[in-house]
Amino acid sequence: MTERAKRAATKGAGAGLLSELPADSLAYAVGSLISVEHLSVADVAGILASTARLERMDAAERARVLPGRTIALLFYESSTRTRTSFELAAKSLGATTTLVSDKSSSIEKGESLKDTGLTLRALGAEAIVLRHPSSGAASLLARVTGLPVLNAGDGMHQHPSQALLDLRTILLRLGKDASAVDAKTLDGVTVAIVGDILHSRVARSNAMLLPRLGARVVLCGPPELLPESALGIGDGVEIERDFDRTLRRADVVMMLRIQKERLAGFDLDLAEFIARYQLSLERLKTVAAKTVVMHPGPIIRGLEIAGEVADGAQSAIEEQVSQGLAIRRALLVRALGGKA
Amino acid sequence: MSDLLIKNGRVVDPASGTDGPRDVLLRDGRVAAVELPGALAGVAGSLPKENQIDAAGCVVAPGLIDIHVHLREPGQTHKETIRTGTAAAAAGGFTTVVAMPNTTPVNDSVKGLRWMMDAARGPVVKLLAMPAATFGSLGCEITDFHELVKAGAVGFTDDGKPVLEDEVMRAALVAAAGLGVPVSQHAEDTRLTAGCSANAGRVAFRLGLRGMPVEAEARIVERDLRLLREIERVERARPHLHVQHVSTARALHAIREARKHGLHVTCEATPHHFTLTDRAIGDYDTNAKMNPPLRDEADRRAVVEGLLDGTVDCIATDHAPHASWEKEVEFERAANGITGLETALGLALRVLHREHGMPLARVIGLMSARPAEVIRLKERGTLRVGSHADVVVFDPAAEWSFAVSESRSKSRNTPFDGAAMLGRVRATICEARVVYRAAVK
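Predict the joint structure of the above. Result:
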């Protein structure tokens, strides 16, 4: 049992109920990033400031930030953006990376996540970047290895580096200072997150992070993909079923991919979904002519988003990808205690 | 077998309505006398000291009965054995436990039942069993209820899984009715819970876990109650449905209504469902993962309410040991269940007695006389003269913290390590044998 759970059990014992404890009592190595819930506003500000500093460095200087440090990339799911950007970020800082994927390792032979983590640690990994299909996997890995773990997406739970890169993209697009944020930076800004909220770790991470900087988050989608329990995400989040009404209010709209692989057993009419929730050019022009369009990718053109919208002037999709590299540098430096 | 005298205690025996200072004499495996203090002085004078238990300051109650435990033998002895599981039972004050059939192989035959009940397994307390309701617990064809009852079965269940098909459940209820035993149902509509690992609600959403809706439990309970009505009307039989580990307000409502209409339905609640909510999952603590899952606060309160108003017939632990490596995995992949035998009394007294004002005698009744009634167990669950000499002696005022490191179970999967308990077992006696004795404090 973890120290935290133990304290929770003891603490809750009197009340007949367990209560959640603040994130600072979590038994993770310093520099881990498992969930945006564990970040204070000051932590977020620090990461953004570090991102900006690293960005200003020239390549040679940057390559001396984490010289010879060893980072393992442990990927149980396919990934283009996240994996490549973590890898390029690490290399640009002078670190050594090794990629372990479920398809070409002892994971295929049935090795547990715990044992895989312990193996990587024994081989000298100083931090692990984990992508995993199961919610909570990153927290498990951080507990059992004691290493700093960067959650690169765990099941439907969290994708914290994505939320941070989305935040930086939003700040830059809205003309705000992207290196200094506080709890009021996004006051008056409404961010809509649209589509398959239920299965989306990106939605959860953004909906937990952005309100803490002052933003209003509006979740939009059909009940099958956006149950009322989504309000469990926390304060500053609301549900709106009508897409046009949502768009009219939104300064930023994040479209989410319909994840066909997670929809087994769902009775979802794709044609109807497209009619009601696709971000079409028509819709954009009519009700959201100034809204910043975002998407964590991969996009499915013609499904949740029209190709013209993805390629249009309001789209920040490619910028998000570039910000991914910048943010992940800062997260790696934070994980390994490097100077930047 | 020598005599045993338990003196200076407060006897609380709900079945006989006794609550007061009494000395208890156990002889030949039976309760021989329950008398006012001093009345057995002659016996005391002739008994050696080691045959006397001083229960001053303690409650002397019928040995506790748990009608829902997983002892994992045969086939899963890395988790528990009949010996270790019943040792944990003894430490928790239990003198009778009912083993569930989801062993390897499934306990679905007379041969399997006899093997399990064989003295060679080394049970520390009285061991009973509910064999599988269907072969292999596959839900297709009911087992030989008649022969199994003759061999000692006290009920039938596919626990861990529901009997899902209407016709199969109907056949099981009809067959059991003729034999006077309950069909014990794990009420979960598995068509609604595939891939789910927590209660459907805000906690599960925040954690990104697929949620089991409360309807999954209620729908099976409601279906089973409909079958009871039909069988009473059509077959002129009176089947007994027992609903295991009830966890939702909705299922409790259905049971309460059915009871009003005279149907023979009983149900049990677990200490974890009346103590914890899904918030206990915290940061993916797999020791808070079980099936049915921990529910939200409204459902937890409904379970407490059901215990207070009598809708819930008894407390059962659903003691479900698992090895650490089966729990130290991704939450969704982790085995369901927690150990419970050693924390049940301490939680029941803390939550129901202290926090909700349930009289001590009722708490004891929910863990002795009432479960005995559910499985029609005679001469246990009471301290009436002539009954089996099953006794628990506990200090009702002792406040302590459970330490899993001291558990008798082979497994360590509990969310209650370090949790506050009220009431501590000092001695457990099964058929006049002392099967547990707390270290002298």
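Chain A touches chain B through 46 residues (CB under 8 Å).
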